[in-house]
Every structure is written in C-alpha cells, then in structure tokens.
Specification:
Chain B: It comes from Actinoallomurus spadix. Chain B: This is NADH-quinone oxidoreductase subunit A. Chain B: Its main location: membrane. Chain B: It is a multi-pass membrane protein. The complex is a heterodimer of chains A (520) and B (119). In chain A, strand 1 and strand 2 form a beta hairpin. Chain A is 71% helix and 3% strand. Chain A has a 3-stranded antiparallel beta sheet with strand order 4-3-5. In chain A, strands 1-2 form a two-stranded antiparallel sheet. Chain A is an all-alpha fold. Chain B has a domain of 65 residues: NADH:ubiquinone/plastoquinone oxidoreductase, chain 3 (Methane Monooxygenase Hydroxylase, Chain G, domain 1, Up-down Bundle), CATH 1.20.58.1610. In chain B, helix 3 runs antiparallel to helix 4. Classes of the chains: A mainly alpha (520), B mainly alpha (119).
Chain lengths: 520, 119
C-alpha cells in the first residue's frame, strides 16, 4: 500500500512586505497595545494611556501612508498578492485614518467626566448595578482598542486583492462595530437594540458575501480578483455560477454601504449607537465599504461591466430616491442624517458605475469631502444637549439659531454641504461624480441624481428654517462646548469650505491617486 | 482504491464509537427520573423559558468556551507548523512567534480581568 501522505518538499516561504503593509500593522499593533493596557495598567491611568496609544497609532499610520504615497509611484501587491498597495488604496486609507482621528476626538470626549459610552456595559439598563457603576465613575476603556481593530479592518477592506482577505477584513471591521453600537451611555435600550439589529443583519449579509465568494471560486478556481477577471475574459460572462456569485457578493458589499434595498439597518443603528461612534461609522465605514465596492467592480468584475451595470443602475436609483424621500418624514436628527447617508451612498454609486478614471477619482474625492462634513455634523449633534443627553428630536432644535448662532450656523453649513450647494465641498463632489457618470454614458442616472438632490435639499433647508426662523423653546437644549469636539467641528467645517472654494488641489490629488487605477 | 481504505476505517471507527457510547450509556448509566432530567438540554445556560421581566444567564460559560476555541485554533496552526518546521526556517519561526504573541495578549487580558475565575 502506498503511503497516503507525501514527503514534504521545500515549502516556498511566503514573503511579506512589512513596509508596504505598515499603516495597517501599526493600527492593529496599537490595538494590541491597547488590550495590554487594559490588562496591565491600573484603572485610573487607563483612559489617558488608551487615548495616547490610539492617537499615536493613527497619526503614525497616517504619516506612513503619506510616505508610501509620495515615495515611488505606488503600484504593488503585497503579502503574496493578497493586498494591493496602489494610489486609490492609499488615498482611501489616508482618508479613513484622518476621519478616524477626528472621530477619536468625539469618542474620547468627556463632558464633566461624562463619556459618550456606558460606564459598565454588562449592567442591565435601569438596574441598581448601573447606578452604582455610574456613581463609582467607571469607564469602559475597552472602546479604544475596539475602535482601532475596526479601523484596522477598514484599512484592509479596500486594499484586499482577494475575496477571502476581504472577508476577513469585513469581519475585523464589523465585529467591534456591532459591539460598540450597544455601548451608549444614554438611551441604553435603544443602543442595545441597534447593536442586535446591526449584528443579525450584518451576519446575514456576511453569509451572502461568503456564498458569493464560494460561487466565484467555483467559476474561476481562485478567489483572487485578478484571476476572476482573467477567467471572465477567457470563459465569457454567461456562466450561471459567475452571475449568481456576482449577485450574492454584491448583496454583501452593498449591505455594508447601506444601499437600498439593503439600507434597513442604517437608520436604526445610526440613531441608537453613541453619536461619536455614528460619526465613525458614517464616515470611515462608508469610505471603506465604497473602497471595497470600487476594487471588486473595477478590478475583479471590470470585464463583466455590461452585465452588472443594469443591476447597479437600479440599486443606485433606488438608493438615491429612498434616501431622499424617506428622510423627509424623519423627526430625529440622527435618523435624518442616516437617510441622508443612504442617499449619498446612491450618489457614490453613480461614480462607481462610470467605471472610468474620472469615475474613480471623483468617487475618491466625494468620499473624502463627504466624510469630513459627516464627522463635523455629528460632532455638532453631540454638542446640542438636553438634561437627558443629546437633543435628538428635531423639534428641540427649533430656534437654536437665535440662541446659539455660531453652532446653528455651522450645522446649517454642513447641511448645505450635504445638499450640494455651491461653495461647499458637497457641490464639488456631486458635480465631479455626475460629470464622470455623464462621460460614462449614464445620463438618466444623473437626472435621477439631480432630482433626488433637489428632494434632499428640501429637508436640509427645512432644518435650517426650523433653527433660524422659529421661536426658541423656553426650555430649549443647551450647547456644551469642549475643546476636542470643537476641534472636530472646526476641522470638518474648514475642510468642507476649502474643498468647496478651492477644490483644485484635492481634486488633483484624487486624480493622481486614481491615475493608475487599482493594482491587479 | 487502497488509498481510501483508511478513510473507510476511520468512518467505521467513528460510527462504532458513537453508536457504542450511546448503547453503553443506556446499559451502565444510572436512571434517576427527576425534574432536571426532563428539562431541555442546553449547554451551560438555563433552558430557554427565562423568568418574566428578563432573566440573565451566566456568561462565564461562554468566556471559557471562547478561550477554549482561541487555544484550539492556536493548536490547529501549531501542529502543521511543528511538522514542517525544518522547511519553513526562520520565517516560519518569526511568524509563529507573532501569532502566539497575539493569542497571549488576549489571554493576558482575560486573565488580568478575572475571566478565569469561575465564581
């Protein structure tokens, strides 16, 4: 009988380009240091150490990303082709890191020693234990490593050059977010409900992603995006296995983006999660998800674009319209911004559908512009407070402009940017994306985009009217200033203004990043 | 054909063990009929009908189970590496040390934060 095992020959050692992967490794390393701080540092020092580790990690990773970007023209695959390091990826990663740093300002915020996160997550809401933990001044400092792990996943997700790496990144990014969603300090039941909904729907969509990956593996014999592209051009695009795989994979990806009809989680989660975390999810997670969508559709399925374009057309149109129309009926400010984020996902998809260099560069620009405005807007929301925490209901915002003109004015500016009014980054971004879509022959899509922008402008302007032209409430919310949040608002407003008034440098940066497309 | 004989033998042994254990249990096990025996079998937590108003079930079982899985996976990676150690050389050693350090960080956290204390 022949032996069933084979004598092992020399196993080729894989080589890993640590230098090119350093931004990701720094962030994940900082997260590990954060876990050790939790384990070893005394309770009183944990908060300071955690904030220090997080900020240093994010800044170092960003500096390294810049260094990679201005070094030799980045166009490499790293880690045996599992990760791509190229212009668009570095642009996306840099954007994620800056936005994460801004969100970190909100996450680390302490108003009168009051963090936005729960004192002890394991206590039942409303129980004596909860009160005890509040009185004892406990803080859940695990949030910092969790945020860093999530950011690490977000950095890998748009860089992943094969579907399995992408799936691992998806989970690394999602699992901490599910948990963090449930850790709000106020309205804890709502927060926990959001976490459970996000987790269940997210797990469901992960299964779709994995199923699609399996189908595409069955078709191409590889999970690598370049091999899938090669198999499509060799075998043609009519294989049922391929089409089913593309459809299932798209469900998984579009869910993370919150595109209709997979948008149901977004309003609940954005409303329930602590606002500081909503800022992170609405900016960084969206950037990462769109980055992943861009890579899959530009690298893996580019040759199949005549087949997936009709599907994406339908999704983009539906997303823009659902986001813009349903937002009109919202009475909670975070929920309204969640629907606004859905609509913006639709605008971003028009850039994806263009499948040309202009589409890529305009989507990159849009992502950066939208991210800054979003973090700024959510930062303002954390500042406007009632006795019981943030003033979520829109009616509470009535007349804020008369009592706090600066804060209300900044928020109005962000809303105008969301609406795409000239002299804000929102206008430049929308203009660039629609121009690329028109060049890509998607005129009807652009028309729907403009119409839904007009619909969306209605509810943004309605909030502005509410803030400036109605009588202030007698017991209206107060505005709590603090340096960290004010910095986040200021940076958001500054970038929104600069990208609207002199967009050329940033547009040029996005164009040069997109110049080489994604590495295969 | 000979190649598949070990698989068939393995399957037969597994089947024999499973069936054998159940039969042996029914012969040798004590038969006490009480309330606990009639309850649904759930591993580590209280069976499903929770007290009205939201009961809480102990989480310590999950902690132990999760730790077990972490180390289980560590072993799964360690074994093939140990077998092929000579072929992987320094690279393999460095990567494995990195992997073990990552698992140890999680272990240190659980240990320091009292996750290993049952009561």
């Amino acid at each position: 009988m022949t032996p069933v095992y084979m004598a092992a020959g020399d196993i080729p050692t894989p080589h890993i380009e640590y230098g090119r992967l350093a931004p990701v490794l720094i962030v994940l390393g900082a997260a590990c240091v954060g876990v050790l701080v939790e384990a070893l540092a005394p309770r009183a020092q944990r908060y300071g150490l955690q904030v220090l580790v997080s900020v240093v990690g994010l800044v170092a990773a960003f500096a390294w990303t810049i260094a990679l970007g201005i070094g030799d023209q980045p166009h490499h695959v790293a880690a045996m082709g599992a990760v791509g390091v190229d212009g668009p990826t570095l642009f996306i990663q840099g954007t994620i890191l800056v936005l994460a740093l801004m969100s970190m300002l909100l996450i680390a915020e302490r108003r009168h020693e009051d963090s936005p996160f729960t004192a002890q997550a394991s206590t039942v809401p409303g129980s004596p234990e909860e009160r005890e933990s509040l009185v004892a001044g406990l803080v859940q400092t695990e949030i910092y490593p969790l945020v860093l792990f999530a950011v690490g996943g977000m950095l890998i997700f748009p860089a992943a050059n094969d579907l399995l790496t992408m799936f691992v990144a998806l989970e690394v990014m999602s699992l901490p977010l599910y948990l963090l969603c449930g850790l709000a300090r106020r309205r804890r039941l709502l927060s926990q409900e959001a976490a459970v909904k996000y987790f269940l729907l997210g797990a469901f969509s992960s299964a779709f992603f994995l199923y699609g990956t399996a189908m595409l593996y069955g078709f191409a014999g590889s999970v690598r995006l370049s091999e899938i592209a090669a198999a499509i051009s060799k075998q043609g695009g009519d294989e049922p296995l391929l089409l089913a795989g593309v459809a299932l994979l798209s469900v998984g990806l579009l869910f993370k983006m919150g595109a209709a009809p997979f948008q149901a989680w977004k309003p609940d989660v954005y409303q329930g999660a602590p606002t500081a975390l909503t800022a992170l999810m609405a900016s960084c997670t969206l950037v990462a998800a769109v980055g992943g969508v861009l890579r899959v559709f530009y690298v893996g399925l580019e040759t199949l674009r005549w087949d997936w374009r009709p599907m994406m057309w339908a999704v983009a149109i539906l997303t823009m319209l659902v986001g813009a129309i349903v937002a009109i009926t919202q009475t909670d400010v975070k929920r309204m911004l969640a629907y606004s984020s859905i609509a913006h996902g639709g605008f971003l998809l028009t850039g994806v559908i263009a499948t040309n260099k202009a589409g890529l560069s305009s989507t990159l620009f849009y992502l950066a512009a939208y991210g800054f405005t979003t973090v700024g807007a959510f930062a303002v929301i954390t500042m406007v407070r009632d006795a019981g925490g943030e003033a979520g209901h829109l009616s509470r915002w009535a007349g804020l402009g008369k009592r706090q003109p600066l804060v209300a004015g900044t928020f109005a500016f962000f809303l105008l940017a969301f609406a795409g009014i000239p002299l804000t980054s929102g206008f430049t971004g929308k203009f660039a994306v629609f121009q690329a879509a028109m060049a890509g022959g998607a005129m009807p899509l652009v028309i729907v985009g403009v119409v839904s922008s007009a619909i969306a402008a209605f509810f943004y302007v309605r909030v502005i009217v509410l803030m400036f032209f109605s009588e202030p409430l007698a017991d209206g919310p107060t505005v709590s200033f603090s340096p960290a949040t004010a910095t986040a608002v200021a940076v958001g407003a500054f970038v929104t203004l600069v990208l609207g008034v002199i967009p050329a440098p940033a547009l040029h940066l996005a164009q040069s990043a997109a110049n080489q497309l994604f590495v295969r | 054909m000979n190649l598949y004989v070990p698989i068939v033998v393995l399957g037969a042994l597994a089947l024999l063990f499973a069936v054998g254990s159940v039969i042996m249990g029914s012969f040798t096990g004590p038969k006490r009929w009480n309330r606990a025996r009639l309850e649904a079998y759930e591993c580590g937590i209280e069976p499903t009908p929770q007290p009205v108003g939201g009961g809480r079930f102990p989480v310590k079982y999950y902690l132990t189970a999760m730790l077990f899985i972490v180390f289980d996976i560590e072993i799964i990676f360690l074994y093939p590496w140990a077998v092929a150690f000579d072929h992987m050389g320094l690279f393999g050693l460095v990567e494995m040390v990195l992997f073990i350090v990552t698992v140890l960080i999680a272990y240190a956290y659980v240990w320091r934060r009292g996750g290993l204390e049952w009561d």
